[in-house]
Amino acid sequence: MKRILINKLNNYIENEVKIEGWIHRIRALKSITFVILRDRTGLVQCVIDNKLINSEDIKLESVVSIKGIVKESNNKLNNFEIEVRKFEVISKCKDELPIEINKEDLNINLVTMLNNRVLSLRHEKINAIFKVQNVIVNGFREYLMDEGFTEIFTPKLVSEGAEGGTEVFEVKYFEDKAYLAQSPQFYKQMMVAAGFEKVFEIGHVYRAEQHDTNRHLNEYVSMDLEFGFIENEEDIMKLEEEFLKFIINKLEKETQKYLNLLNVELPNVNGSIPRIKFSKAIEILKEEYNKTNLENDLDPEAEKLLCEYAKEKLGSDFIFVTHYPRVKRPMYTMPCGENETHSFDLLFRGIEITTGGQRIHDYDMLINNIKYKGLNPENYLSYTEVFKYGVPKHGGLAIGLERIVSKILGLENVREATLITRDRHRLIP
């Protein structure tokens, strides 16, 4: 008999079905036992005659197969229940559960949650985070493909870090050494130059940063895009506005069940996202919040304050900060005058979720900028050679998936939106 998912059972009233899943809750009486069974689609109450079962086999989180008749019922879960005819244990839970996952809220600390990651993911609210995450990824991909972008898959073993810094993981590569990719940046640009014009990638990136904060990971998923024949960074920001609207609308249509479960209010991006230059942001921080310790970059407190300013004064959950100082942006970033760049960050609910901008497309300018950043052009020949053969004006952006998910859902720590965490202290599970 073919397995039926719980969310389809209302189509089988008075019919015999086979369902399979985990035992979520148990209530044993003298002659019958009520078992709440869970599969990926929901919960269902099953009524079992105790003659059919061995009480030793009825353990929370055991995986079981049940055959029975779907009967109309007025229980708390559904307008039906299963009158069990046959009960089979597929995989018995052998040990006492380290966390209680059949409660409405998990109520454990983050360390315990991550130490028991597979079990914690079985909890309805924790699982819902990744159902929402999946729709965000699908929305990003769907929108860009409709706009003529090609999805690419670039190497994660590289000879140099794309950011030109030292925060890379070194890997033994036969007789040589390689690094785990910080970003697909070089390859995105190469594929624009290769004639694809519009490309995107959703993939893991690696940063060997010594951070131990609620916003940093050493391995995370980056949603990257790059496209050619732009005028300047404004074209990139407009594209991001449009795909954010598309994603939020998709979430509203497809994930309302999970948003309600997590008590989430989606951000409003119907209008244009406000833009302020970096220099103006520094002024606002000084005048409005008496924050005077910044010069060439924003710290976490500054990002939080600017988001408060955007919400209170501009009515927006999002704010673009543009024209970051040249000294703080990577060597491929297009300069704007002597000190600024054609670049931007998108801040959202207190944190930077996107970095982007126009890239240098002229070979001589790129070589000079690599030198300006104190780097050796000889180390980047396979990348810079491309620019000798005609490259359009282009630019792009990168979004940290875990960050945008955690901020949309109001999570306190980016690790909560990370399926399996890799940070300064965690290499298992």
Describe the protein's topology.
Blueprint: E1 16-28, E2 32-39, E3 42-49, E4 63-72, E5 80-91, H1 110-115, H2 117-120, H3 124-146, E6 150-151, E7 157-158, E8 170-173, E9 176-180, H4 185-196, E10 198-206, E11 219-228, H5 233-254, H6 256-261, E12 275-277, H7 278-289, H8 300-313, E13 318-322, E14 335-336, E15 340-341, E16 343-348, E17 351-358, H9 363-372, H10 381-384, E18 394-400, H11 401-408
Parallel strand pairs: 3-5, 6-10, 12-13
Antiparallel strand pairs: 1-2, 1-4, 2-3, 4-5, 7-9, 8-9, 10-11, 11-18, 13-16, 14-15, 16-17, 17-18
Helix pairs in contact: 3-5
What does this structure look like?
It catalyses: tRNA(Asp) + L-aspartate + ATP = L-aspartyl-tRNA(Asp) + AMP + diphosphate. It is found in: Cytoplasm. It is an enzyme of class 6 (ligase). Helix content is 28%, strand content 27%. It has 429 residues and is an alpha+beta fold. The protein folds into two domains: 86 residues, Nucleic acid-binding proteins (OB fold (Dihydrolipoamide Acetyltransferase, E2P)), CATH 2.40.50; 299 residues, Bira Bifunctional Protein, Domain 2 (BirA Bifunctional Protein, domain 2, 2-Layer Sandwich). It has an eight-stranded mixed β-sheet with strand order 6-10-11-18-17-16-13-12, with helices on both faces. Strands 1-2-3-5-4 form a five-stranded mixed barrel. The chain is elongated. The relative contact order is 0.11.
